[in-house]
Design brief:
The structure is a homodimer of 427-residue chains.
Chain A lengths: L14 E13 L4 E7 L2 E7 L14 E10 L7 E10 L20 H6 L1 H4 L3 H23 L3 E2 L5 E2 L11 E4 L2 E5 L4 H11 L1 E9 L12 E10 L4 H22 L1 H7 L12 E3 H8 L10 H15 L3 E5 L22 E6 L2 E9 L3 H10 L7 H11 L5 E7 H9 L20
Parallel strand pairs in A: 6-10, 12-13
Antiparallel strand pairs in A: 1-2, 1-4, 2-3, 4-5, 7-9, 8-9, 10-11, 11-16, 13-14, 14-15, 15-16
Chain lengths: 427, 427
Amino acid sequence: MRILNHEIPSAVGQTVTVAGWVHRRRRLAAVSFLVLRDRSGLAQVVLKGAQEQLDELSEETVVQVTGTVAANPQAPGGAELVDPLIVPLTEPARTPPIELWRPTVGAGLPVVLDNAPVALRHPAVRAGWEVAAAALHGFRSTLDGLDFTEIQTPKIVGTATESGANVFALDYFGGPAYLAQSPQFYKQTMVGVFERVYEVGPVFRAEPHDTVRHLAEYVSLDAEFGFIGDHRDVLAMLRDVLAGMLAAVGSRAGTALERLGVELPEIPVDVPVLHFSEALKLAGADPSEPDLSPADERAIGEWALREHGSAFVAVEGYPMVKRPFYTHPQPSDPTWSNSFDLLFRGVELVTGGQRLHRYSDYVAALEARGESAEAPAYSSYLQAFQHGMPPHGGFAIGLERFVARLTGAENVREVTLFPRDLHRLTP
Amino acid sequence: MRILNHEIPSAVGQTVTVAGWVHRRRRLAAVSFLVLRDRSGLAQVVLKGAQEQLDELSEETVVQVTGTVAANPQAPGGAELVDPLIVPLTEPARTPPIELWRPTVGAGLPVVLDNAPVALRHPAVRAGWEVAAAALHGFRSTLDGLDFTEIQTPKIVGTATESGANVFALDYFGGPAYLAQSPQFYKQTMVGVFERVYEVGPVFRAEPHDTVRHLAEYVSLDAEFGFIGDHRDVLAMLRDVLAGMLAAVGSRAGTALERLGVELPEIPVDVPVLHFSEALKLAGADPSEPDLSPADERAIGEWALREHGSAFVAVEGYPMVKRPFYTHPQPSDPTWSNSFDLLFRGVELVTGGQRLHRYSDYVAALEARGESAEAPAYSSYLQAFQHGMPPHGGFAIGLERFVARLTGAENVREVTLFPRDLHRLTP
């Protein structure tokens, strides 16, 4: 019966069996050490006689080790295995393309990504995804607790979701189809069925630019819910979801955070909110600007930290001209919208807001943009509104961007298992 | 402050506000009823004066209702709202394409699917997805509890995953790419990193056939884990996962099960297992057959129910010639494989098994099929095996097929939110 490495310290004096990868061998004159890695961490195995077996046990070879647990304050966890019987479970492994046993990754990002199947075994590379997996858990468990229903909607769609740009086209049984850029239309539609829905799944953007923030395929955490007053209810929900995600990262990925040297931010119960026009002023930008520049976002992030001690700040009221047609205008002045961006450490992390919910408003909004509510692209979507939809709104969080900002990764590719971009389709 | 319909009975004597969709109006001589639907169920609202307001409140119009809760044994839950103030939140809704208030769906499947955005509001249609959402929760929570790590792997891939057939091709920045038919290669690779992984996500099959069991896009529940003895360990894990899924469906989708008239099956702790050669014999089939026919599967399902009282039965040892190259052969006779199908009520539900784990075995298996381990399609996948992989295995459950079998739906499309097939790309 196999035990995990992290259980070794509580088995002092017993004979146990562990299994994992040869992480590192160290030979001294009279004694040698084999460091074994499994999913729970590292363990030290001490060889006294028959050290020649180590020659066969190259790094990454998978072995099973039966031995006696002895206390040793110098060993990881304060215990080690002595008098081991080591049985290889595979042929000797080839030398890895990067040295997995070194505390830091001694290779550049392209090498790591090209060799992802093996590079991800490095505890410091793996840690990024451990944070991501914990964040996914936090997202779902928070929304499950708030009576949301999980949905899974199609990724092959008949028309480009929100715009014709940056969409991947495919051959669908001889006809044209596209990869969904977001589940926006479906999640809104499903508010008519379940009131509160979320979806975790891939979205696809044919991004022609090579930046540290964009991927051609990423994981979108989408939520949408009905019977709201306005976008402030959406922001309050987003705040609770992010708090749940941060809490899950703290409780489920503590070792990863430690390895990455990351301290989790607190998210205030009331996230500071600036109106878009105030944000421009605060950043010293031209008041006629329709969008915030990266420098503006940084200035606003600094303001929130300075004035409110918050790493998070919301900017609401973005100009309607810069928002999609389904955005709900600000009732007091329809130049502005009931939508927001949430900035985290001075960078946009989440976009959300209130949507239109009356069919007649959709007709008008589309006509104002020179489109028709009769267009086939909108017929199923707008059917939901013809048959009664409540005031609603929602948001979408990009998983990779969230994890990158949280861990301080400069490039989202560092925290993506197998990134896809303009230049990368493998592994 | 809105309360939900199902909270009404515990508020007798109080003034409350509820909100939802006008599910049905009923006019009698002196009194009228409005049945309100929200995500928790139905509520009855009683109108005495001013019944003309009902004319404006067509079915599916979204309203907010403030009224006093009165006990009434005839009302749903034993209470109803009287003296209501009804405020419409949208314009009057158009008449739905199917009558949502009738207890059974009075339309055929094509009409339901064409009008899915609204048809899914019917409690009997919605119930199918409620079962699916609960099953997803059960899958993840069971594996989370067993120390599995969730992964999200790319759906755009450079080569067809397992075979060139039935794959969707797309234009990837001017070059060819494909939609992943399964996360098989990635999940195996990730066993080298996390030992135990699962993924819930879309998979894509360009199925040229129009059947009640196949979709062009479906949700695959994949698990893979290392340090197994053989495929029997995989089957035992699958059994626990299915038990967890069934338990979650029971506890989280009880109302849906009731509405669908579904009684949950029990899954025995030890699922009955037949070797493929025994299965052929039992079904009275030719012993040289390389596969089980649907009739064979039904016969085996009946046998399991009769002899073991089990709706589930596993068939192990399928001929190697019918299994993918990564399948581990049966050590005692390599004609057979260490793989299995799990049949549920006489139909294949899950395929699983032990995989090869030695690099040299992959080289030999590919060569035996006239392929090369040096082919670019395999290079990243096989890199994991060059650098040490433990004995491992896994399985994949098709969500829609699982829910269809469980609920007795004849067609998987009945329990899919927005199915995709040879003829259907919308809604």
